[in-house]
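Progress report, Aim 2. The chain analyzed during this reporting quarter is listed below.
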Amino acid sequence: MNIEAIRYEALSLPLQERAHLAEQLLSSLDALSEAEIEHLWFQEAALRASELDQGLVQRISSDVVLREAQALLR
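Predicted structure tokens for the chain:
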């Protein structure tokens, strides 16, 4: 069964069953080893670097991010 079939089946479940499944899936992420977590972070970093290289996203300075975050907290 591929991920799309699993997603389709999961989204067809009643609300309570979907919530329970989501909880189980999220809690399973807590069981990752340090090496697995590190690998996932490297994958994410590589993806973001690729998006920057391809021009799909733009850099935002930390000053702008901080200013926008502070504005949201007001």
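Residues 33-74 form one domain. Residues 34-53 form the longest helix (20 residues). These observations will guide the mutagenesis work planned for the next reporting period.
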